Amino acid sequence: MPQTQRAKTPKKKSPAKPNEAHRPDPATKPRDPNEGEGNITAARRYDRATEAYGRSGRVDEAANAARKALETPEREELERAEQEARAKASDVEREADRRGLDGEREAPQRGTR
């Protein structure tokens, strides 16, 4: 005697609560390798590395090496490289250099120029 097959019925989904939007669980959400503009992961990694370098004590050593390099025939090449970099700098960086600012360079506020 042939067996009869029952038609499979789709599983019923539990009704969503009306005030809750569907949000994936952040713990199980796969990480998107492309974070786009404003890559938070890269910014955090850079901040940590910069802070660690500052605490390492190698900053003075690097500054002294740079100072000594300016007292050698390499000076012309270094100054040429600096001029090339300044030519490629953004308006924000040029304005910060003009004002003698060092450190964080934030974009100027709109309407203040």
Quick take:
By secondary structure, the chain is mainly α. It contains four helices and no strands.
Report what the structure shows:
The protein has 113 residues and is an all-alpha fold. The protein has a domain at 44-99. The protein has four helices and no strands. It has helices spanning 40-56, 58-69, 75-88, 91-99. It is elongated, with a radius of gyration of 29 Å. The N and C termini lie far apart (90 Å). The model has no long low-confidence stretch (mean pLDDT 76).
Q: Strand percentage, roughly?
A: under 5%
- Count of individual beta strands: 0
Average pLDDT confidence is 76
| Helix amount | 40-55%
End-to-end separation: 90 Å
Tally of contiguous helical segments: 4
SSE order, one letter for each helix or strand: HHHH
Assign an overall shape. elongated
For the biggest sheet, the summary is: none
Uncertain runs: none
As a whole number of angstroms, the C-alpha radius of gyration is 29 Å
Kindly name the structural category.
mainly alpha
Could you outline the blueprint of secondary structure elements for this entry?
Blueprint: H1 40-56, H2 58-69, H3 75-88, H4 91-99
Task: List the main descriptive attributes of the protein structure presented here.
113 residues, mainly alpha
